[in-house]
Specification:
The complex is a heterodimer of chains A (311) and B (249).
Chain A: E1 2-6, H1 16-28, E2 31-38, H2 42-50, E3 56-61, H3 70-80, E4 86-90, H4 93-105, E5 111-114, E6 116-119, E7 122-127, E8 132-138, E9 143-147, E10 163-166, E11 176-183, E12 196-200, H5 214-220, E13 223-226, H6 228-232, E14 253-257, H7 263-266, E15 274-279, E16 292-295, H8 298-310
Parallel strand pairs in A: 1-2, 1-4, 2-3, 3-10, 4-9, 5-9, 12-13, 12-14, 14-15, 15-16
Antiparallel strand pairs in A: 6-7, 7-8
Chain B: E1 2-6, E2 9-11, E3 33-35, H1 37-51, E4 57-64, H2 68-78, E5 82-87, H3 94-108, E6 112-116, H4 127-135, E7 139-149, E8 152-159, E9 162-169, E10 172-176, H5 188-194, E11 199-202, E12 215-221, E13 230-231, H6 235-244
Parallel strand pairs in B: 1-4, 1-6, 4-5, 5-11, 6-10, 7-10
Antiparallel strand pairs in B: 2-3, 7-8, 8-9
The chains are: A alpha/beta (311), B alpha/beta (249).
Bound molecules: flavin-adenine dinucleotide (FAD) and adenosine monophosphate (AMP).
Chain lengths: 311, 249
């Protein structure tokens, strides 16, 4: 039983999600390989070789892997798939894009976003926006899985000494081409990796008003998130959306400001360790999951909170 | 050019889903069913491409029980020209749906297939990518903008870091994200018109597809409940709790 983990990286650095996925792999079996596919991604491959518990790193470097196009990455993974009993990727936007393509090429029914491993063929995954947990068993020869990173604590970044193997990438598919990318810049911690998240909803009223959350996020060294309504209204960028169909977060502290707490939003944050809600409507469903709630006008409460944190 | 849109009938997003006491699944009896919201966005996008003169025919396909006809009629009321129901009483998993859609694509030769990024019941987020793999077509998932011209689709995608734009050679697969468009409301006259539009019935056997489930569901349970929290009077009390009780700051 050998398990392949597809690394999440930006060529230069490895993303933590890779180590959460290795943690899931460790619960399945002990022989773990990590694939680092990209363009000039030697540094990420070296970092992967340091991860605790990784036996081998497959390093594939080619211009056609530079933008992680699913057509090219899936062809690469399929070329080595027969060596493995399991193929795992983190449930990031890259992982969600490419993994089903791999699964279909291997005639495997993927299991999406597992949060627990019961045995090498049995896994737990949320369905219906996390309103139910399904335990599912796969009979496929090669099991193809995406891992919800909040379900597994990352293994250590160091302590391993994996062998490095170079892997030749298949040629460009010619089917798709990368055009451009608009990266939302931020000095803050990454939303899915932050220890504290401050999120705003429609109650913020405007993009301009989101500024009142900044001193709070600064004070807490928090990432910033949002509800769908706030993103749809154009207050903040799309990659801030937390929820069933946005990002799944489980920080130590989640502060929901002017968010009602629709099930689709709760699906993305209800596994946070401590939840704080600030809402002027005492009936808002967010209070049913909040450890601490303040009923009040956010435009008054948030500045007071910042003042209190300074003390 | 023909566009094919796949639509799934799911429990309406407003329904509070309940797990069955015997642990076999969730309660579906007497529960409101609707078109998967992402598929409504997919139908709307196909309609806009048709209205822009890019697409000439919009074909909608659903795989599942006979009642999916109602969902197909809704899509016809939005404006789709024709519908196909691939009827099966088996609980269809994404790989099986992708195989059925592949067979339909081979019969119908669409240049563009638009699916939702995710069904809000199984939350799989797989079918579009799988269909693209089986057809060896390019894919653009999580689309927030689509432009079709000169045999290519240029698609802006919502990704973890922001937005990304790719160009696909047609035929191609696109899956929709929430901000691609705002679906129109169906009007009564269009509901009446939809009743007369063609709806074809196909069977998986006739398409040569084995739809037997590959993953077995051993049990379905409620998620752990969070214990009820407390209301605190003000910011000062909150900070005190966070520091001394929860110890998170
Ligand atoms: C297919 C689908 C997928 C979805 N996916 C997601 C998802 O991933 N994430 C997500 O978040 N949603 C998602 N949604 C949307 C979800 O159903 C809700 O519509 C959304 O979460 C509501 O956002 P909100 O709480 O900001 O807005 P609202 O529900 O409008 O709530 C605003 C809240 O702000 C409070 N408020 C207003 N002014 C003040 C003030 N001055 N002070 C204090 N409080 C104030 C109000 O009392 C209210 O509770 C999805 C919906 C669908 C159909
Ligand atoms: N039974 C089905 N019939 C038609 N389309 C489906 C079906 N299941 C999934 N799809 C399509 O695939 C998308 C993604 O579903 P999923 O992969 O199950 O999350 C949906 O939004 C639909 O467009």
């Amino acid at each position: 039983m050998t398990i392949l983990v597809i690394a999440e990286h930006d060529h230069g650095t490895l993303k933590v999600a890779t180590r959460n996925t290795v943690a899931a792999a460790k619960q399945i079996g002990s022989e773990i390989h990590v694939l680092v596919a990209g363009n000039n991604c030697g540094a990420a491959a070296k970092a992967a070789a340091q991860i605790e518990g990784v036996a081998k790193v497959l390093h594939s470097d080619a211009p056609q892997l530079g933008e992680f196009l699913a057509e090219n990455v899936s062809a690469l993974v399929v070329s080595i798939a027969k060596r493995y009993s399991h193929i795992l990727a983190p449930a990031t936007s890259n992982g969600k894009d490419v993994t089903p393509r791999i699964a279909a090429l291997l005639d495997a029914q993927q299991i999406s976003e597992i949060i627990a491993v019961e045995s090498p063929d049995t896994f737990v995954r949320p369905i219906y926006a996390g309103n139910a947990l399904a335990t599912v068993q796969s009979k496929d020869a090669i099991k193809v899985i995406t891992v919800r990173i909040t379900g597994f604590d990352a293994v250590a970044a160091s302590g391993g000494s994996a062998v490095l193997e170079t892997l030749v990438a298949p040629p460009d598919s010619g089917l798709s081409a990368f055009i451009s990318r608009e990266v939302s810049k931020s000095e803050r911690p990454e939303l899915t990796a932050a220890k504290i998240v401050v999120s705003g909803g429609r109650g913020m009223g405007s993009g301009e008003n989101f500024k009142i959350l900044e001193p709070l996020a600064d004070k807490l060294n928090a990432a910033m998130g949002a509800s769908r309504a706030a993103v749809d209204a154009g207050f903040v960028p799309n990659d801030w959306q937390v929820g069933q169909t946005g990002k799944i977060v489980a920080p130590d502290l989640y502060v929901a400001v002017g968010i009602s707490g629709a099930i689709q939003h709760l699906a993305g944050m209800k596994d946070s360790r401590v939840i704080v809600a600030i809402n002027k409507d005492e009936e808002a469903p967010i209070f049913s999951v909040a450890d601490y709630g303040i009923v009040g006008d956010l435009f008054k409460v948030v500045p007071q909170l910042v003042e209190e944190l300074k003390k | 050019m023909k566009a094919l849109v796949s639509i799934k009938r799911v429990i309406d997003y407003n329904v509070k889903v309940r797990v069955k006491s015997d642990g076999t699944g969730v309660e579906t009896a007497n529960v409101k069913m609707s078109m998967n919201p992402f598929d409504e966005i997919a139908v709307e996008e196909a309609m806009r491409l048709k209205e822009a003169g890019v697409v000439t025919e919009v074909l909608v396909v659903s795989c599942g029980v006979a009642a999916c006809q109602e969902t197909l009629r809704t899509a016809l009321a939005i404006g789709a020209d024709r519908a196909i129901l691939v009827e099966s009483d088996v609980a269809l998993q994404p790989l099986a749906v992708a195989k059925l859609l592949k067979a339909v694509c081979q019969k119908e030769n669409p240049q563009l297939v638009i699916l939702g990024k995710q069904a809000i019941d199984d939350d799989s987020n797989q079918t579009g990518q799988m269909l693209a793999a089986l057809l060896n077509w390019p894919q653009a998932t999580f689309a927030s903008k689509v432009q079709v011209a000169d045999g290519k689709a240029q698609v802006t995608r919502e990704v973890d870091g922001g937005l990304e734009t790719v160009s696909l050679k047609l035929p191609a697969i696109i899956t929709t994200d929430l901000r691609l468009n705002e679906p129109r409301y169906v009007t009564l006259p269009n509901i009446m018109k939809a009743k007369k539009k063609p709806l074809e019935n196909l069977k998986p056997d006739a398409l040569g597809v084995d739809v037997a489930p590959r993953v077995s569901i051993l049990r379905v349970v409620d998620p752990p409940k969070r214990k009820a929290g407390v209301k605190v009077p003000d910011a000062k009390a909150l900070v005190e709790k966070l520091r001394n009780e929860a110890k998170v700051i």
